[in-house]
């Protein structure tokens, strides 16, 4: 009965390093989303996975960003060669199917120094 | 393309006042879903309500009520007799029909509500 779990909760990295953020969705949820929330800003869509369909990557801001979802469950968001503007809270959400409410994790706060 | 606009960036009220948060959306689809989420200071996003485009009936849940009007593409949220614990950022969001590609949830910029004692 656990909710969406994200790790780490906080990550500080140096500019230029790669980072991996992990998301464990609610068991049985077929849809998984990544969003980014910069300080004082709204939620910016990054990528969306639905079952075995090809992911919707249209929100990824650059080719430094990539994500995968293994076995239809756990997802990893990877940011290569991090930049200071990548600093934000990265939120993962899952839903039972398209159109149903998203359940969000507590996010990973990424700080690039 | 879909778009959600929350024109009120910040609202400040005194406890027990009623407050309405505005949400206007744009979509080309005839079938879509609208949502409201609450983000308290602790940061987690809490789902409040989902409404589909074919159901214009207003909904009331305790002190919360929602007014969906397709004619004006609005989905406004009213809190009656506000309380300090209502202080949070509130996000309105839109999801186009599940059958269409993407089905991403597009959020508005959020409205920061502060309820003062």
What is the structure about, briefly put?
The complex is a heterodimer of chains A (about 110) and B (about 120). With about 110 residues, chain A is mainly beta. Chain A has no helices and 10 strands.
* Estimated structural class of chain A: mainly beta
β content of chain A, as a range?
Answer: over 45%
Overall residue-averaged pLDDT value of chain B: 90
Low-confidence stretches of chain A: none
Rounded to an integer in angstroms, the radius of gyration calculated over CA atoms of chain A is 13 Å
How many DSSP E strands of chain B? Answer: 12
Report Rg of chain B.
14 Å
Overall mean pLDDT of chain A: 92
Oligomer type:
heterodimer
Q: Please outline the major beta sheet of chain A.
A: 6 strands, mixed
Q: What count of helical segments of chain A does DSSP give?
A: 0
What sort of overall outline of chain A do the alpha carbons produce when their principal axes are compared?
Answer: globular
Share of helical residues of chain A: under 10%
Can you tell me the overall shape of chain B? globular
Largest contact between chains? A-B, 25 and 23 residues
Can you walk me through this structure?
- The complex is a heterodimer of chains A (113) and B (117).
- Chain A has 113 residues and is an all-beta fold.
- Chain A contains no helices and ten strands.
- In chain A, 35% of the residues are buried.
- Chain B has 117 residues and is mostly beta strands.
- Chain B has strands at residues 3-5, 10-14, 19-21, 24-26, 32-39, 46-52, 59-61, 64-69, 74-79, 88-96, 105-107, 111-116.
- In chain B, the strands form three sheets. In chain B, strands 2, 5, 6, 10, 11 and 12 form a six-stranded mixed beta sheet that branches. Chain B has a four-stranded antiparallel beta sheet with strand order 3-9-8-7, with no helix packed on it. In chain B, strands 1-4 form a two-stranded antiparallel sheet.
- In chain B, strand 10 (88-96) and strand 11 (105-107) form a beta hairpin.
- The model of chain B has no long low-confidence stretch (mean pLDDT 90).
- Classes of the chains: A mainly beta (113), B mainly beta (117).
